[in-house]
Amino acid sequence: MKNYNFLFIILLGITLANCDDTKKEENSLFTFDISSFKEQYQPQETIDLGILNPESKEIDSIVYYVNDKKISSKKGLDKLKFPLKDQKLGYQNLKAVVYFEGENSEATQRIELVSNVQPKLLKFTIVNTFPHDTTSFTEGFEFHKDTLCESTGQKGASYFRKYDYKTGNIFKQIDLDAKYFGEGITFINGKLYQLTWQEKTGFIYNAKTLKLEKTFTFEKDIEGWGMTNDGKYIYQTDGTEKIWKMDPSNQKMIDYINVYSGDSKIKSINELEWINGKIYTNVWQKDAIAVVNPANGAVEGILDMSGLRKFVKNKTAEVLNGIAYNPKTKTIFVTGKNWDKMFEITVSE
Fold it and tell me: Are strands 40-41 and 103-113 parallel, antiparallel or unpaired?
């Protein structure tokens, strides 16, 4: 267990939850009864919701909301037992609308829901090693019909290319305008989607010809980091603990998950890859890959990639960034920003 905890903290660079991050009450007439509240909850638990009535008002009913969704109503001061099993990980915003004496007033509070999953420690085996362009500041990494595709960052040097990973021969390359810092890519429905970092702009290309078909503006005020898809929806990161779920048909954000490893949220989620129903993600500035359940954001596995560093000879090499699953070989390709090598690996417990 001691070794597990060491890797758990060092590899993922976890930002521990702030134990005193309880939202302050803004209403003095009614408040949530927090006498039994805990700093953190797990999905298998139930929380007791109730209201304090210090001025002894005659209460008709109370309507309870979690994250602005109505969950139940109660007569008078009856308490409500609310199971947390169907809530997404992260902060839960509680609200109670109290109806009394012909009036109504709100009380608010916040709790944190964390993961009850202990991540498995994973290991990798190198199958092959291939050269990687040291000028490539890798941001996106994905296979499309057995061809490796890579996008890069840095203004004035951002591009994406299709190439032969065995020889390095470039089949086609599209350079971005110098005002853009290129980020993640993903192929879905015959299109190639690409993000930019802080320009809040995305591009949609024909996957076959790489002809630009549409430029879109991010719906949310977020940065663009990594991208992947499950065949129906696109998932993208923004440099926080969030993984957003996007409808590729209209580029609208329809949901998100918060990534948690145990009782701590994992920030700086970066490049993504969808592999066998799970999301594999780099954690920025860490030589580690987290395996995330896309349904709830729980980290289920931790892959220590630090052993690759001894094979990387380029002195200007930066962080690990790049995960591409080849469905033909059922192997994973990984690399990093300005690395001189890419590695074909298999993963096991």
Answer: parallel
Q: Is 336 exposed, middle or buried (0-12, 13-18, 19+ CB in 10 A)?
A: buried
pLDDT exceeding 70 applies to what percent of the chain? 92
Sequence-ordered strand ranges (E) for 7-68: 31-32, 40-41, 46-49, 51-52, 59-66
Please give the domain boundaries of the chain with CATH numbers for all domains: 18-113 (2.70.50.50), 120-348 (2.120.10.30)
pLDDT digits (tens, 9 = 90+) for 204-246: 999 999 999 999 999 999 999 999 999 999 999 999 999 999 9
At residue 17, does pLDDT exceed 90? no
3-state helix, strand, coil in the chain (%, to 5): 5, 50, 45
Residue indicated by tokens 């061809």: 147
Please give the Cα distance from 136 to 157 (Å, whole number).
Answer: 9
Q: Of 111, 114, 72, 80, nearest to 93 (Cα)?
A: 111
- CA distances in angstroms from 98 to 46, 52, 60, 104, 195, listed in the order given: 22, 11, 8, 5, 45
Residue showing tokens 């929380």: 47
Nearest to 335 by CA among 150, 146, 144: 150
DSSP assignment of 186-229: EEETTEEEEEESSS-EEEEEETTT--EEEEEE-SSS-----EEE
pLDDT at 92: 94
CA–CA gap between residue 186 and residue 23 (Å, rounded): 38
The strand pair at 212-217 and 201-206 is best described as antiparallel
Q: Would the pTM of this model clear 0.85, i.e. be above it?
A: yes
Q: In a 10 Å sphere around its CB, with 0-12 CB exposed, 13-18 middle and 19+ buried, how is residue 259 labelled?
A: buried
- Asked if 116 and 42 count as a contact pair (C-beta separation under 8 A), the reply is yes
Distance CA 72, CA 81 (A): 10
